[in-house]
Design goal:
heterodimer; A: about 260 residues; mainly alpha; globular; B: about 325 residues; alpha/beta; Rossmann fold; Alpha-Beta Plaits
Amino acid sequence: MNALAKYVYVGRTAVRSNMAYLGEVAARVFFLTVILYIFLQLWLVTYAETGADRLGGLTLAQMLWYLVITEAITLSAPAVALEIDSDVRTGAIAVQLVRPLSYPLYRLWATLGERAVRFILNALVGSALALLMVGPIALSPQGLGLFLLALPLAFVLDFMAYLAIGLCAFWLENTSGLVLIYSRMTMIFGGVLLPIELYPDSVQWLLVNLPFASIAYAPARMFVDPNAFELVKVLARQGVGIAIFAAIAAAIYAAALRRIHAHGG
Amino acid sequence: MEGRIELDGLRKTFHVTRWQRLRRTVGEVVAVDGVSAQIPAGQSVAFIGPNGAGKSTTIKMLTGILHPSSGTARVSGLTPWHERRKLAYQIGAVFGQRSQLWYHLPPRDTFELLARVYSLDRERYRRTRDVLVERFGLGPFLDMPVRKLSLGQRMRAEIAASLLHEPRVVFLDEPTIGLDVVARHELRDLIQEWNREQGVTVLLTSHDAGDIEGVAKRVIVINHGRVVLDDSVSSMRRRYLGTKLLKVRFHERPAPIELDGVSLVKAAEYALKLEVDTRTVPIMRVVTRVLEAGPVADIAIEDPPLDEVIAHIYSQTARERDMLVQAR
C-alpha cells in the first residue's frame, strides 16, 4: 500500500505542477475551435448529401461530440517520450535512479497526473464549443461512468508505447521520428478523425483490435454511445494492449539499464 | 558500517563499437582502472580530476546506477549495484547540472513528494525539514515556484532536498557550478557545517579549488581512471608543491636578496613578492635574509593557490604517462 501511495503522490504533484501553468491552454483552445469548426462544416454537408440521420450509427451531434473526445484525448498526450529521451541523453535519469523508486512507474504516474489535467481542460473547452455548434447529446451518469472506466487504461496504454519509444534513446540518435510515426498511427488507425465504423468493412475488425483504437476510438465511442457489454470488450483489449506494450518496454528498459554508462559521462 | 565508503580495485570498462567499411571493431575504453580507497564515516572528501578522468563513473558505481566490470565497493555496508533500492535510503545525491526540484512548483512541494518517496515518518520529516529550512535559509522562497529562484537559491534547495531523508552519505557532483562567489561561499559553509554537525560522509567532486579547501579535509585525485593522489588537503599543498609565497613590505628601499631557491615574482619600490622553494632553502633562512635587507613593515608567508597545485598534479601525471608511452 505504501509503495502505491508514493506513486499516487507523484501523480498528485504532477497535477499541481500542471495547474501551475496554463499558458499553453490558449493554443489548444484555438486549435480545437478550428478543427471542430472545419469538421462541423464537413459533417453538415455529408449528412445533408447522404440524407442519412446516422452515419456509422452516430447522429451529427454525436459525431461532433465524438470528435471532441478523441481530440481531447490526443491533444492531452504529454511529451513523455521526449522527456524520457532527454533523461537518457543528458544522464538526468540518474536523479531518479538514486531514489527508492522505479523510474518507469514514476514516469507513469507523473504522466497520468499531467494528462488528467490536460484532458479535463481540453474536454471542457471542446464541450463548450460543441454545445454552441450542435447542442447537447443524451448523457446519463451510468454512461459517463462507463466512459470514465474506459479512459484511464487508454492513457496507461498510450504511456507504455511512449515509454518504449523514449527508452530507445539509448540506441538511437533521435527518437522524435518514432514519436511522429506512432502518433500518426494512433491518429489514423485509432479513429481520431473518423469513427472506425466509417472505415471499409474489410479493415474494421483489424483496426478495432489494434491497440490504437483502444486509445482514442474506444473511449470516445463509449462517451457518445455507452454500452456495458462493449465496455468489457474494450477493457479486455486495453488490458492485452498494455500487457504487450509493457512487456516490450520492460525488455527495452532492462537492456537500457545495462547501457546506462554510455551517457552523461 | 553506516556512512563508510570502501572501494577495492573498482574497475569499469566500456565497449565501444565502431563501423569501418562494414567491418565492426569493438574497442575497449577503460573509464575507471582499479580505484581503491577507504573513507571512514563522517569524513569529507574531495574527489577531483580533469574532465573524463572517471569521477562520474565512480560516483555512478557508488550510487548503484552502474555495475563495475570488476572490483568491489561497499557504501554503508551495502554493495550499491546489488542493493540499489536499499542503499537509496542511506545516501543523498546532488548532480549540480540536473535539477531534482519540480520546476513549476515551490520547493515545499518537492519536499513533500520526497517525504512520500522515502516513506518518512511525518513528525520526523517536519522536524528535519524545519531544521533544513532554517539552516539553509530557505524560508523566503520555500513557497515560490522554482523557476523564479536564483541559481544560488535553487542549489540551496537542491541540497536541502537531498538531505531530507537524513542520509549518512552525500554525493555532491559539482554542486557549486555556475554560482557566483557569494553563493558559492554560502553553500560551502552549509555543506561543511552539515558534515561536521551531523557526521555525514561527504564525497564532493568539483573543478573549483575553493570548494575543495572550503569543504574537504581529504582529497583524492584521479586521472585516467587511477588514483594519483590520496592525501589530506593541507599536506597535499605542502608536499606537492614545495613552494611558499613570501610577501614583504619595507619602510625603505631594501637591499637586493639573492639566495638559491628564491625567485623574484614581483617587485615594487618598497615591496617584494618572492617564491621560495622550501626543498632547496628553509623558509627561516629566507626570512632572516629578508629582515637583514631592510626595515620590514609587513610580512606574509602564503601557500601557493590550490588551483596551481592541482594544475601541477594534473600536468605531472600527464607527463608521467607520456614518459611511460615513450618507454614502451
